[in-house]
Amino acid sequence: METATAKRYPEVWRRRTPRETALGWLWTAAVAFAAAWSVSALDIEWAFFADAHVQAFDLASRMWPPRWSYLPVIVRPLIETIHIATLGTAIAVVLSVPLAFLAARNTTANELTWAIGRALLVASRSVNTVIWGLLFVAIFGPGPVAGIVAVAARSVGFLAKLVAEAIEEADRGPIEAVEATGAGTAQVYLVAILPQVMPILIGTTVYRWDINVRESSVLGFVGAGGIGLYLYASINQFAWQQVLVVLVAILVIVMASEALSAYVRARIS
Amino acid sequence: MTAAAYPNTWRPPAFFGSRRRQRLVITGFVLYFVWSIFDLNVDVERVLAGLSRALDIFARMVPPDFARWELLLTGMAESLQMALAATLAGVLLSVPLGLAAARNLAPRPLYLAARGFIVLGRTLHEIIIAIFFVKLFGFGPVAGLLTLAFASGIFLGKMLAEDIENTRLGPVEAVRATGAGFGQTVVYSIVPQVLARTVGVIIYRLDANVRHSTVIGIVGAGGIGQTLSASFSRYDYDFSLAILLCIIALVALGEWFSDWVRRKLR
Amino acid sequence: MEGLEAESRRATAVGPRPLLTVEALTKVYPGGQRALDDVTLAVERPEVVAIIGSSGAGKSTLIRCINRLVEPTAGHIRLGELDLVGLSRRELRRARRRIGMIFQEFNLVERLTVMENVLSGRLGSVGFFASLVRRFPPQDITGAYGLLDRVGLAGYQDTRADALSGGQRQRVGIARALMQNPDLLLVDEPTASLDPKTARQIMRLIRELATERHRPALVNIHDVALAQAFSDRVIGLKSGQVVFDGPPTALTPAVLTDIYGEEDWSQTIRRSDDDEAPP
């Protein structure tokens, strides 16, 4: 009698539908396959790992004690590293604003200009600063100019992407109001949109500057100026005690610029 | 008439507090830029010469040369393999590191050591780390793999530590209160909290590894970067452009994939 | 402060010809929604015209079609002799400079100062570079100070718009519109984002300024009491059509029922009668 009146509830409950379960297994299989493929194809010589820790220890011991007398030599390249980051960022800011307006859906002129803007964004962002350095060293010859242009080339896309997103999310109201006064298109961008995206532009610029200090520390590897050249040279001469000094110096400037950037960003927001 | 005399000039208020401070800041920036340009000893003649050389190089780049597509494909595959394997190795490395760097879990000395390690590792550029692995393991993708694995382990370890520190204890207590064992508690209360975010972070790191895998070849750590570097040193500019286009495509694809997966997870 | 051109414009403005004529105006949105259906009206003297109607009746579309923030589907809009429909972008910009607009959400540029917001009403008369370095003609600056004083914001020129209260923001919005020295004021729900007391103050200010300057104002407003208190003429819209056009005193319960649908209107009407007389 009780069973007759009781509602019948299902006895099985599954969190996922069979389709979801199958998809889950498919993903797992894909990850496993990718792992197996990548590890096997890399042809790793496992024997190398056997004495790796011995070698690493050996390397570390040869770095000690650091040769502090090398420090005066690298002061100028360290300053140069920061110059490269700052000037490159400055150029990038100037170029990124028009690029952002070109690549934002609501401010670009037509489909073609939008596509050009997007293509420039993707190209700038997808090529690493050091690879840009390789290209600009070929053009300008070795030295900080190639480094500055490389930093600018990579940062333009980074800044413009975030600013373009901010433009697309800008409040329509003020734009409409300034349009209604009969202002020209450029004036509408200047007066109604630019102030709205200014905080993003400034914050991102400061953030990118400290990334650029880190990037500039290795531009010397391809001959694009800065401290990297000295690190590379010291390693190639097996001057490990110098290497340690350079590493410490790089750590100091990168961490200092990170702290400065974080401080400035906290102040302005 | 009797109309009040209103001023006929107006200047926007100073951005940096007072007008004096604003002038000071602006002058400071200008002076810095002037100093830095002079300090760098920029050779204007060489820059101008570079502009015409840029045209020359550009002319030699176009059209891109895909004739050696096998070499190109090998390099791209190697980059991708390094990125994939390094992400997996990074996940494995991140677990002990993340546990050690979680303030609410690890003993104080271990926590400080792990945090110090993370800070050091994050500050040094991947290429610097790569050059050491090249010195230890010789040229080739193994050095690259280890570089990316090292960087991934540190990045993911830091994220894991923050996740552990931010885990809400309410659900943990609720599940434990039902009499669940340790394993059951973890599966039912901690895993659901961190799983989606963790997968998102790992995918993001995979994307970052793809980007970095294209560049560490510059110091001989394998991948497409090595091919690119070689093509530049041989003035094979049309092949260089082909490689650059492939890198752009690979990185853009990686970013799109990463965005797609993370959107799905949300 | 006003040039010859403005003087002559005023001469024509108070002349016998209609200031604004809207003929057979129709707007169909891409979704097929018919927001305005054959609307015809004329404003022949400087008067405050309240446009009432329930939400979705087409009030906002009508106002926005007049300066073509919304593109009309068919019909004509004449400002003086000029037909605004069919103007090129360049000509439209020139025409918009003659039409001041005040918005419900104020639509100030939040991160700019009050002065910059007011001066943005003069953007049409300065070049791009001048607007970049904020260099406006001295008579514009004087005019802006005067307007700020008039709307009760003297001394606020350096305050950023996001630091103002709602009523103050709307005063800046009014000053910006008047900075254009417009031939016509379009006002879109000026009080919907304000508390009742501020709403009355703002409506009174709009009315006073329109009267002082002999300019007609078209005011969208959903509050019938406010419409009655501060307008010379009321136009009722329903489903995109004009269903009433007459003096505020002619708004009887029967008329309101026609515009809005069945409701007890005695309270609304009595309250507006109790209010102080419009200035």
Keyphrases for this structure?
heterotrimer; A: 269 residues; mainly alpha; MetI-like fold; 12 helices; 79% helix; 0% strand; flat; C: 279 residues; alpha/beta; Rossmann fold; six-stranded mixed beta sheet; 10 strands; 20% strand; globular; disordered N terminus
What does this molecule look like?
The complex is a heterotrimer of chains A (269), B (266) and C (279). Chain A is an all-alpha fold. Chain A is built from twelve helices and no strands. Chain A has one domain (70-268): MetI-like fold (Orthogonal Bundle), CATH 1.10.3720.10. Chain A has helices at residues 2-5, 18-41, 47-50, 52-63, 71-103, 111-126, 129-140, 144-168, 172-180, 185-219, 228-236, 240-268. Chain B has a single domain, classed as MetI-like (MetI-like fold, Orthogonal Bundle). Chain B is extended and about 80 Å long. With 279 residues, chain C is an alpha/beta fold. Chain C has a single domain (18-274), classed as 3-Layer(aba) Sandwich (Rossmann fold), CATH 3.40.50. In chain C, helix 6 runs antiparallel to helix 7 (166-179), helix 7 packs parallel to helix 8 and helix 9 (224-230) packs parallel to helix 11. Residues 1-16 and 272-279 of chain C have low confidence and may be disordered. Chains in contact: A-B, A-C, B-C. The B-C interface holds B 3-4, 6-13 and C 113, 115-116, 134, 136, 138-139, 141-142, 144-146, 149, 157-158.
Topology:
The complex is a heterotrimer of chains A (269), B (266) and C (279).
Chain A: H1 2-5, H2 18-41, H3 47-50, H4 52-63, H5 71-103, H6 111-126, H7 129-140, H8 144-168, H9 172-180, H10 185-219, H11 228-236, H12 240-268
Helix pairs in contact in A: 4-12, 5-6, 5-8, 5-10, 5-12, 6-8, 7-8, 8-10, 9-10, 10-12, 11-12
Chain B: H1 19-39, H2 44-61, H3 69-100, H4 108-123, H5 126-137, H6 141-166, H7 169-177, H8 182-213, H9 224-233, H10 237-265
Chain C: H1 4-13, E1 20-28, E2 34-43, E3 48-52, H2 59-66, E4 74-79, E5 82-83, H3 89-96, E6 99-102, H4 114-119, H5 128-132, H6 138-150, H7 166-179, E7 184-188, H8 196-212, E8 217-220, H9 224-230, E9 233-238, E10 241-246, H10 253-260, H11 266-274
Parallel strand pairs in C: 3-8, 3-9, 6-7, 7-8
Antiparallel strand pairs in C: 1-2, 1-4, 4-5, 9-10
Helix pairs in contact in C: 6-7, 7-8, 9-11
